[in-house]
Amino acid sequence: MKKANVWIISMLMLLFMLALPSIGHAAQQTHINLNGKEISLPADGQVTTVKGSIMVPLRVVVEQLGYKVSWSNATQTATIKQGSNTLQLTADSYSASVNNNPVDLEAAPSVHNGTTLVPLRFISENTGTTVKWDNAVKTVYLTTASAAPAPTTAASTGKDTAAPQQEDLAQVNAISFSDNRLTITVDGNVSPKYSALNNPDRIVLDLPKTSFSSTFLHGQKPSVGAVNKVDVTGYPDVAGIRYSLFSSSPSTVRIVLDLNNAQQYKVINNQKGVVMVELDGALNPAPPAAGTETTPAGTTTGSASADNEPSQSVPATPSSGPGKNGKMLVVIDAGHGGKDPGAPSIQQRREKDFTLAVVLKIQALLQQEPNIDFVLTRSDDTYPTLQGRVKTANDLNADLFVSIHGNSTSSAVSPSGTEIYYTRSDSKQFAKVIHDHVVSALGLPDRGIHTKSLHVTRETKMPAVLIEAGYLSSMVDEPLMYTDDFQQKLAQAVVDGMKEYLGVE
Asked: Which domains does the chain have, with CATH numbers?
């Protein structure tokens, strides 16, 4: 690993040691080994596990390195700079920033009495370091790219789950339901299987060799048999959607669409990590595709529900799905969600509730548009990762991407108004069109169009914008933002702007 990455590790370990309060004494002595060298840990700075995530103290290897650290009490944010490198972390936040690039955390930094812990996976994924945890000797091994491999005896990765560790597991990081279509975004290749069952009517979808990302499960580790649900409203044919880690050997995610009546349907696997179940509205389920194979009874284990029947293999259908029927395809993103509430409003209402309410109104409007297909990154209070939101749009080859947010500031006097953000030059014209419609519809002060390196507008491959509709910290904006009238105006403006840009009637 380059020296810059070693610096990042070291700076992380200094940050909260200087600025924040400690987690207390660990019950057992633990160790950190960097490139084969033992790092001394204080008694109150041990490695520990918090809600299934292995957490590592930041109080390591920093004393001899040059750095500049600034701390904002107002925002509870620390900024560390060395040369052109800038790192920002915020207390109790599930998001960090490395050189202005947002990075998701599987667990928020935990701070008590002078010691701060961060999730082990954060170090692995965002510093380029090989990280292993040896539970037998309670040791974290950090190995830079230029160093020799770390010891592997009895070691496992930072994915501390209830199920045994398995190689090459795909990770579910988003599940949503919109336009009579269930969309599952998976990090990795999957080979789905399905069944149409009755008494009661339901469709069962299995994803073998798959687990859940820890961020999607609100930082909790997957547990066999624990059932979660996707909230579904406005779809009379669907009674509900539930999902679980159905089996641990092999690790299998099961998703069940409970139906109010039998439906004709098709299952789509684009082989890029997006799996869909589309309901066609008929009274009888479609027969399995010709030539599919049947999983032998008893292949899966566990009992998240009584849906133990064999499943049919899903043939790859990359030419099917949304946007493949001559329609334009847009992906609509409700910012934040699940474990990430977003910014609090002045009345302590949550940003994630505002963004979802607007997106569901956009959904209702798009259902009336004959020339536009759409997919939501989330349709209820779940947390798709930033990477998962981007992956959904990119893997579906969407034509447009729109992310809805509410703005906030810690300033004593909050501004009021609407801002539009984009990153890449190919999004500039789309941003202008959306800006004109949104500002005109909402009537708040026009705070302009801005370029900023935001993950969802930077990494998407199609024109993409992020709308900061108003300021949740404003006594003027906030009361309006949580009204149906404001949200409906915003939803209509977004749809009108997309239609104008796409040139559809």
From this structure: 3-156 (3.30.457.10), 170-313 (2.60.40.3500), 328-502 (3.40.630.40)
